[in-house]
Structures are given as C-alpha cells and as structure tokens.
Amino acid sequence: MEELLNFAKGPLFRFSFAIMILGLIRLFVLSLINGLEAKKKARDKSIPKGYVRKMTFGFLFPLRAFRVKPIYAFVSILFHIGLLFTPIFLFDHALLFQNSIKISLINLSLSKQVADWMTITTIITGILLFIIRISSQTSRFISRKQDYLLPLLLLIPFISGLVCAQLTVEPDVYNAFILIHILSGCLIFILMPFTKIAHCILLPLSQWITARAWKFPSEAGENVVIDLGKEGETL
Amino acid sequence: MDRINKAKLILWTILGIAGAVAITRFIFGLGVTTNLTDNTPWGFWIGFDVMGGVALAGGGFVIAAFNYIFGKKILHPIARAAILTAFLGYVAVAIGLLFDLGLPWNIWHMIIYWNPHSPLFEVGWCVMLYLTVLTLEFTPVVLEKYPNIKLLSIIHGFLYKIRIPLVILGIMLSTLHQSSLGSLFLAMPYRLHPLWYSPIIPVIFFFSAICLGFMMVMVESMTSSYLYRKEQEIHILGKIKKYASYMLIFYLFVRFADIIIRGAGSFLFSFSWGMSLFWIEILLSCIIPLIIFSMPIKKIKISILYFGAFIGVVGVVFNRLNVGGITHLNNLTEIGSFYFPSLMEFSISAGVVSAAMLIFFYFVENFKVWEESPFDNLVINKASKFNSFKVYLGSNPIVNRTKFSFSFIFAFGLTFALISGGEIHSSGFDKSPVTKARGADTLLIDGNRDGYGVVFAHVNHQKLGYTCGYCHHINKPDDKATGCYECHDDMYLIGDAFRHDWHSSSSGANLDCFKCHNKSVSKGMNFKFSNKKATHICQNCHNKIIPLDSRIKILKTYKSLSYTDAMHSLCINCHEQKLHTDSLLKQIKPNLAQCSKCHKNFSVFKKDKKLFQGKKENKWVVVP
Q1: C-alpha distances in Å from residue B421, one per residue of A12, A100, A186, B136, B427
Q2: Are B497 and B560 in contact (CB under 8 A)?
Q3: Do the Cβ atoms of A91 and B528 come within 8 Å?
Q4: Average pLDDT along chain A, 235 residues, taken 10 residues at a time
Q5: From the candidates B405, B426, B526, B529, which should be mutated to test the interface with A, based on the most A CB atoms within 10 A?
Q6: For the domain B2-379, what is the CATH code?
Q7: Hey, how many other C-beta atoms are within 10 angstroms of the C-beta on A97?
Q8: Domain holding A110: CATH number?
Q9: Chain A contact set for B406 (CB, 8 A)
C-alpha cells in the first residue's frame, strides 16, 4: 500500500500533471494553427465575428442561460465553481504546492468549513447534472458514453477527498481513500487534453473554430469524394 | 513521405525526453544531471556536443572551399546543404555549451572581458564569428523565397555579391577554430594519454576535421536521399569518396608519424585500456572507411558506402571524445574517479542533435536548399479507404502535427515522471561541521580545519572599546558571549538555531505546544496567517538572549546563516561602516574592508599547521 501510494504520489502524479499542462497547451496551439490554416485555404474568409464573440462570452458568463433554463444554469455554475476553485485553493493542496514548486497560495486558501461546503456542493450539483442529463430525452439523444462517465469520474476525487479531510478517519481507511483520490485525480489529469474536459482551455476558441469550419475550401467537395473512395461516380 | 515522417516522429520523441532533462538541468544544476566531478569537469557534453559538433560542422567549410575556391563545380548541388549543416552544427555547439557552462548566463563575458592568452578565448570568438559568417552565407537561401519584398531583395543582392569574401572568411575562421580546439589540450600534457597528446595536436585536429567534413557530407547526402526517396547523387558521392580517401591516408600517415617521432610508439603495443581505445579509434575513423572507399563506386552497394562513411564519422567523433575526456589520466589510471556519462547527459546530446536535424528538415522542405524540391519525387499518398471506425485526423500536415506534438508531450511527461525526485533532493552540499576558533588573545578562525583560515585579533577589538555583546549578538540562555560556532554550525549550509525537539520533549523543557504556538493553529487549520501570528518569538520567554548593545538587534528567523556567511557579513559590514564614518581610519587603513586584509598568508601559524589540521585531508587534486 505504502509503495503504491508513493508511486502514485511521485512518478504517476508528475507524469499526469506534465501531460495535462503540455497537452492543454498543445491542444490550444494546434487548434489555433489549424484554424488559421483553414482560414488561409477558405475562399470566403469572413466569419460572423459579432456572433462568435457573443457566444463565447455567453458561455463564459451564462446570463442568457438563466432566462432559458434557470435551474440547469444555476446547478451548472455551482458545479463549475466548485470544480475549479476547491482543488486549487484548498489549504492542504496549497501546502503541497508550496513544498513542491515553491508557489505559495496559502494566504489565498479557503478555510476548512468553506472548503468542505464547496466540496459537498460540487458533489451534489454533479449528481444533479447527471440526473438532468439522463432525464431529458433531447440530451440523451446527443450524449455519448463519455458524456455520462466523465461527470461521475470527476466526482470520485471530491468524494474521496472529503472522506480524507475528516480528522477522525483511521490511517488504513485514510490511505485507501487517498490512494483512490490520487489515482482518480491522475486519471482526470491525463484525460483532460484528450476528452471533452479540454473545453476548459478550448472555450475561447471553440466558437471561432466552429464558425471557421463552415467555410470550406473551394475544392472540399472533391476531397470528400476522394476520401469516401467514390471517384468517378455520379453524385 | 512515410520514411521522413517516421524519422521525424522519433526525433520529436527524443526531443521530448531531452526537454524534460533540460529543465531538470537548468533548475537543479549540473550535479544532479551529470556524472561530472571536480576531477573530470569536462565530459560527454564537451567531447561530443562541442568538440564533436564543431568537427561535424566541418563539412561546411570543406565543401565551400572545394566549390568556390578550388572550382570543383561538381560539388555545387550539395553546397547549400553542407553550409546549412555547418550552420546548424554550430548552433548546436553553442546550445550544447550553454548546458555545460555552470553559469550559462555569463556566456557573453568573453565579448567584453578579454583574455587573449587563453585558447578558450580564441575558441569562443571563432565560434561567434563563424556562426555570424555562416548565418550570412545561408541567409540568401531564406531571402530568395520572398522576392517581392523590396528590402529583403536588396539585402539578398548585397549578400550575394559578397559571398566569395564571406566564404573565404568562413574558411579562415574554420581553419583557426578547428585547430584551436586542439590547442586547448596543449595546456594539459600531463592529463592526456601520450597516444593523443602531441605538440601538433592542432594540426591533427584540422586534418581530421577535413576528413570528417567529407564523410559527414556523404552521410548527410545519403541520409536525406533515403528519407526523401530521392535518387542517390552517385557522381558527387564518388568524387567526395575519392577526396576523403586521400585525406584519410594523409591523416593516418601524420598521426602515426607524429606518435613515432615523439617516441610514444611503445604505447602502441603495450596492452592497456588506452591502447585499445586508440586502436578502436583508428579502426573506426580510418581503416574501415579506407577499405570501403577503395572499392569503385559502381561496384559497392549504397548501404555499404553509407556504412563506411558513417563509421568514419563515428570514429572521428570518438577521437574528439577520447581527447575531450575519456583518455584523461584520471580515467585511465586509478588516481581519479572513473567518469562515464549519465543517461541524462546522453539524452541532452541526443536532443540537441535531434533539434538540429528537425530544423534541417524544415529548411529543406520550405526553402530551396536542394536543386529540386523534396516533394517532387514523392508519390502523393492517396488517402486510404475511408473507414468510419478510425479517427480521422485530417490531411497530411495536420496528421503530422498531431502525431509529432503528441509524441513530444508523451515523451516529455514520461521522462519528467521518471527523473527521480529523491535523487534531485538528496544531492547538494555535504555537511561540513564547524569547530571552535582556537587561541586566546588572538584567534585562528578556521571552521572546517583545512588549514586556510583567518587570524583574528580578538583582544585588539576588545581594546578598541567594543563590548562582547556587540559581536556576540545572541547569547544562549544563562550564557555570556556564546561562541559563533554554536549556532552557525555548518561552513556552507544554513543551520537551525532553535531546538524544537528539546523544547517539546518531556526530558527537555517539557513545554506544552500552545506555550509557543497559537491555539487556533490546531491541526494546521489556520496556519495560513503567516508564521508570526502562529508562533511566538524567542524573546517572549528568553528576554535576555539579545544583548542590549548588540550590533544585530532583530531576530527575524530561527535559521542561522552558514559560518562563512555569518563571519563575512559581520566583519565586512562593520569594517565598511567604520571606513565610511571614520575619515582618519580611512587614511591609515584604506584596505580595511578588502579580502586580503583578513585572508593573509600567515607565516606565524604555518609551523603549527599540523596542530590546527584535524584529520581532514587536504582537498587539492594531485596530478602526476
């Protein structure tokens, strides 16, 4: 157990953290380059800038969503706040940051009570989001397997972390839960750049990319035919 | 496009590994990443990256000389590629050097602080100037891609006009530089093995660089033909093969003549590690290539020719490694510690080479380095049959970008994870405990007892009217004028003046935690409000530990400076302050705050040196 814990804390964590940071940077840069290249190829270079801006900010500050689907928007915002701020500003994590990379967030860190409540909120809202997704026929229709799995996976470190934060747990239980906490955290870190969780970094670009994607280059139709292996056939 | 893309994928992976190691090197230093020691300060990076790199770049000046000066126009098609190789080689040398320098940010010093007696000074200037010349030689290739921009075309025209003077300048600088790398080792006749040390080592370096230049151009031409599926440039290869064999015979002759004339011939057949290294080197760099090159080009397979040239390149680089570190006496005898490069050293070197190769491919693909574009002969891959189960990554450039960046970050992350955290944190200074200063009225301050200390006139300072507390700025409880060594207990490391365990233990002071720590600190919950609020300062209980007349009035931390830092800051600050305030003193003793004022060659204590020397041995390296 101890060895496994040390491995998870050391090499595994370093690997997944590096993959996350570099992977997100890579994804951002790749999207930017590919989008710019698509612009170069497209015949019609204009995109609806106002619309793109409106949608991007609309996703960042979802005021409009409150009018349309108030409960969903509220739950979703609470979930995102808990998801982002609790791990970063947790006091225990701040100590780890300070010991490893000498960046001190200790003065900014949350107090124990606030952190606990934020964690609980995150867990509850996460489950609510899952229920909302499976209860609506429309969202069931557009969901893939990973869309169901990822929110639940995201909750595992929160639940295990909450258990560990209780001062009364026995050492063995603590070790087991901290192992789950670290392993699931590492899994999330690794998955981040390769699944839809990447929207955390791609959000500023996503609307722009979508708008860009609808401006096909002039010979796109022929390429599609070649790719489908249907050259010479009448359409 | 398959071969070149596979090659690029591998190179990007190596680059990822090297990237993680490079970060480790620049954050944690040379001690963690390399096996270098004070005995062997020059290792693989100097031998391969710098000396090997310079030699590998020799192809540039050799081909430039044959093409432009000797009028061998047959070599013209490969001239640009050779100059590009040389340019990238030199950039790699400069970057490799940055890794090896202890203080890489001081690399510009040689431009301003001249030391014209040093071979390294000449080496540095030559690298700098030749890099500039190579940049100017290669710039037209980049500029000619943009004929529409007027300024660029003017610069292009100008550079094109001065290309011959530039080539001549480049050849001169190369000649100087290739040989002056050898001159470095003229200064160490006792360090180098007799089979390598020679008064004409600069000349030998120059000749071998020419041999290597030819072979390197062959390797480069054949490699790129293979990767880009071009037709091999047989007629050019045949010519270069001929020149290379003449040069190799000449080099072999000079090498053996030198050894025999110097009288070191007996080492050729005395069985030892040095001898075997020498024969391996000769076999690789001269004999195998000569045998292969002696066959007519039409009869040998291209792969065998490639093998010959490649082995030759390896051999000459092996020569540089031998001279640069492997055959130094401490490696061959039992005097010093044996040096073998660490994995991290290898990976950095491999990374630098990979980066150079990737930049080479970039230039080849985007600019007119060759007569024909590398894409001319390629059969453009048709997209394979559409398969809806496969992830579609897009067109070729997008696929490549995705794959290469993925391999890079994957290799980076894996290496970053594997570099052991324990190794990084365990390394550092060894502890060097401090002992008490000796003497009575006059003290010998020599904390680590290595025989090099400072004589301190203690009684004279007392006579000047300073009270004890002025310098002895903290006293232990119930003590007066506590000795420096009691808190500053390590020569070079920061120590701890506070004994936490003693205060808390039941056999010590037996204090409750909350005697010193605030109660709200329980379970580390509110520790975030800075240490001051969380913990009391010493004076709350020990109200007399700082004397009233102390020079240092505030106790900021429980950490104590290292012994050397403590001594220097106390003495020098006080002396400087006195010089500023006392104008009479400034006239009598103007050197009061200088190093030599205290660090004297003290003859008084010399005869008693043994008395002061503990068991600690003298640390100087003795070279036979």
Answers
A1: 12, 10, 18, 45, 10
A2: yes
A3: yes
A4: 83 90 92 83 77 80 78 88 88 79 75 88 92 87 85 91 80 86 93 88 82 70 72 65
A5: B405
A6: 1.20.1630.10
A7: 15
A8: 1.20.950.20
A9: 26
Question: CA B570 to CA B179: how far, in whole Å?
Answer: 50
Helix, strand or coil, per DSSP, at residue B599: coil
Q: Give the least confident one: B141-145, B259-263, B272-276.
A: B272-276
Residue A150 sits in which domain range? 2-29+48-202
Tell me, yes or no, whether A231 lies in a domain. no
Query: What ipTM was predicted for this assembly?
Result: 0.84
Centre a 10 Å sphere on the Cβ of residue B126 and count the other Cβ atoms it contains.
22
CA distance to B455, B463, B572, per residue, from B441 (Å): 11, 11, 21
Instruction: Give me the phi and psi of A45, to 5 degrees please.
Output: -85, -5
In this structure, is residue A115 part of a structural domain?
A: yes
State how far residue B307 is from chain A, nearest Cα, in angstroms: 38
Say how far residue B433 (Cα) sits from the centre of its chain: 31
Residues 6+ apart with CB under 8 A from A64: A58
The residues spanned by each domain of chain B are 2-379, 438-498+542-612
Numbered residues of chain B with Cβ closer than 8 Å to any chain A Cβ: 20, 382-383, 385-386, 394, 397-398, 401-402, 405-406, 408-410, 412-414, 416-418, 421, 523-528, 530
Burial B195-213 (b: 16+ CB within 10 A, else e): bbbbebbbebbbbbbbbbb
d(CA B444, CA B607) in angstroms, rounded, equals 14
More confident residue, B1 or B185: B185
CB pairs under 8 A between A and B: 64
Distances in whole angstroms, Cα of residue B266 to Cα of each of B262, B273, B285: 10, 14, 22
Closest to B33 in 3D by CA, of B344, B412, B325, B340 = B344
Please report, as a single letter, which amino acid is at residue B293.
Answer: F
Q: Say how far apart CA B146 and CA B528 lie, in whole Å.
A: 59
Interface contact B530-A107, CB threshold 8 A: yes
- The reply to whether residue B383 touches residue A226, judged by beta carbons under 8 angstroms, is yes
Provide the token pair at A198: 């990447």
Q: Rounded distance, CA B324 to CA B181, Å?
A: 10
B332, β-bridge pairs: none
Domain-embedded: residue A219: no
Given an 8 Å threshold on Cβ–Cβ distance, is A30 in contact with B402? yes
What band does B34 get if pLDDT is binned at 50, 70 and 90? confident
Give B495's strand partners.
B560
State how far the Cα of A114 lies from the Cα of A131, in Å rounded to an integer: 26
Query: Into how many domains does chain A fold?
Result: 1
Q: Is B92:B352 a contact under the CB 8 Å cutoff?
A: yes
Q: Evaluate whether residue A136 is within a structural domain.
A: yes
